[in-house]
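anyone seen this seq b4? input:
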Amino acid sequence: MSVPVAPGRLPVLGHTVSMLRRRHLFTALLRNHGDIVRIDLGTMRTYFVTDPRLVHDLLVTKGSSFRKGALFDRFQPVFGNGLATSNGEFHQRQRRMVRPAFHRNRISHYTATMARAAADWTADWRPGQVRVVEEDAQALAVTIVGQALFSTELGERAIDEVRRSLFIVLKQGMVRALSPSFVQKLPLPGNRAFDEAIARMRAIVLEVVRGWREDGVDRGDLLSVLLTARDPDTGAGMSDEQVHDEVMTLLVGGVETTALALAWTFHELARHPEVERRVHAEVDEVLGGRAPTFADLGNLVYLRQVVNEVLRRYPVWFLMRRTLAPVELGDAALPEGAEVIFSPHALHHDPASFSDPHRFDPDRWSPERTALIPKGAYVPFGAGARQCVGNLFAQTEIAIAVATVAARWRLVPVPGKPVRVKFTSAAYPTGMLMTAVPRN
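predicted toks r here
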């Protein structure tokens, strides 16, 4: 493919439907055309950043010169004005108010919820039983995040509604985000399902919020933190509407990442017996048969390396930013309002940053090898001022859940039933059938 050079020395690529269908290959190959490649997506001109150090500049060094991009504008009906979509001073204010919910002391408290939910998940397993692991992982992730958010009886109803509606929102929300704006107005089944799911979740979340306002009791859950938070400058709290938006952000952001990571972790452990053996040996030595705690994570060193490697192998496809003013990024002068794209998936599979990048290798996260990874090459939760506020919660949840299961069970793939993968915002496994085998 010939690539003409645009003014400012940026290579320019058009796009075709066939290219976007092969999007992971397409984004991975962009690095061959330069550190920043201009791509015209229909009438929208975008700049795709392929160099990890420039991604670090985009997210961290010059992060204040950017806001969320066009992709996040499309998610406004889902997140409202939550942390994922808000910008500027309002975003900074909200982040200050939400951050205490994810302090290490709070996460240590939630660890018991994580371990208990994982133990309950496996309580009714039977030797030889075939599990649909991606469905189990989704249910477990919803339970953990839901119980951390809502601790009341009404909260249990909210969790049930999240189980019913959230994955409709995730699936159809990404379809909407990647489709022309007129598509969401068509009377399509997917549009109706999305609108109904959003309406149901909105109603139950606001009902829980109003119920909390009436009781006014701090129950130690995430919702209590949001409702008691105060702006340190003004002393003002959040409105019910804003609490709803932040709850939706935490649900959508917290469930998808951890559900996918859990499913792929058990898949990779089954594919790599030596990795699985090392995880089991470490879990046995550290836990000795008891439930894991937050303090144990410091000793579950190899397990955390496995989690890092899963997050490297199975991240989101791409993210976007928009320039607030003219910005110099590397050798490129980007105009105000420019849409900038980077792909965590492409960055995480760049052979210049990760040797043999398609090989599952937890040892690449040993301290001596981690030190060699360039800044911006590993961004499963973003970076800088807009890094996912719940990143430590998610990493803790994955490790605690895997440790709890691995202490008692192995999951073995069903012969002749290969896992199918559907790429939307990330790699979704379908038909991940695995047999539950007791370790003892």
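The first strand starts at residue 12 and ends at 14. Confidence is low (pLDDT under 50) at residues 1-9, 15-21. kinda curious what u guys think
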